[in-house]
Amino acid sequence: MAAEFGRLITAMVTPMDVDGEVDLERTGALAAALVEAGTQSIVSTGSTGEAPSLSDEETVAVWRATKSAVGPDIAVIAGATSNNHRRSLFLTEKAEELGLDGVLLTAPAYSKPTQEGLIEHFRTIADATTLPCMLYNIPGRAAVNMSSETILRLAEVPNIVGVKEASNDMEQIGEIIAGSPDNFKVWSGNDTDTLMVMAMGGYGVVSVAGHIVSPQIRSQIALSVAGNYVGAAAIHHELMPLINMLFIESNPIPVKYACEVAGLTAGPTRLPLTSLSSVAKDRLDLELAKHELALG
């Protein structure tokens, strides 16, 4: 049986060595450290994991190392989908063979499909697996927005269990929360939006900041679940400057550097992503020094 998706899911970076090769030993170490620090589940090889730069063989190897490190009780959700429909089906099949716990159905980048195209793409993938599937709406990277109507239609597919919503459109997110079945969950796809999404009835967050401040994020979520939005808002305001700094340059450039500061080297990014600039590094260092960092 697949492990439950948690309220705090970290979209994990893919560690690499100094030559830009995937570092499977550090991949396992990072996954274990994230769980120890408070992450409840992991998205592996999503956009934060530099999925577009990985070969299929590397992707599967990262999944295997991650799942081996965290064990059966922690969900590992595969970033298995892209704008290539047949490749998405192939990788989804591999994720199930490896014993992963779910699949992230990411809106296809570059292709700009119609809403009907999105529905057929995701429904076909979901029908091809027994794994629970999480939709991922990210217009900023995909150049297409999955409408609330589209997401609610897909919510009727039995094993599509939720959505990572990164549209920044609170009206749309509210419509999804209000109109979806009781067993369909909405995770914030942006650390900046977690407070608002949970206040509307959302379930949690798929987080980048979870790499280094997962205890604080878990506290914020727990306070929101308890209805203490004053307390949750205090943590939100405390973390906002750090969260903004983690996106001072393209994700995952800053968070890979932040992992190193927190004590676990994740290595460089692959081209076309470059190292964090010296100006950005100085600004991020100043902000990191203000927070208690937890990574293992």
The gist of it:
It contains twelve helices and eight strands.
Kindly provide the radius of gyration, computed on alpha-carbon positions and rounded to a whole number of angstroms: 18 Å
Task: Give the biggest sheet.
Answer: 8 strands, parallel, barrel
Number of helical elements? 12
Please report the total strand number as a whole number. Answer: 8
What is the class in the CATH system? Alpha Beta
Helix content: 40-55%
CATH topology: TIM Barrel
Strand arrangement in the largest pleated sheet: 1-2-3-4-5-6-7-8
Q: What features would you highlight for this structure?
A:
alpha/beta; TIM Barrel; single chain; globular; 296 residues
Describe this protein's structure:
Helices cover 46% and strands 12% of the residues. The protein is an alpha/beta fold. The chain has one domain (8-288): TIM Barrel. An eight-stranded parallel barrel has the order 1-2-3-4-5-6-7-8, surrounded by six helices. It starts with 7 loop residues before the first strand and ends in an 8-residue tail after the last helix.
List the helices and strands and how they pair.
Blueprint: E1 8-11, H1 24-37, E2 41-44, H2 56-70, E3 75-78, H3 85-97, E4 102-106, H4 115-127, E5 133-137, H5 139-142, H6 148-154, E6 160-165, H7 170-179, E7 185-188, H8 194-199, E8 204-207, H9 210-225, H10 229-245, H11 253-262, H12 278-288
Parallel strand pairs: 1-2, 1-8, 2-3, 3-4, 4-5, 5-6, 6-7, 7-8
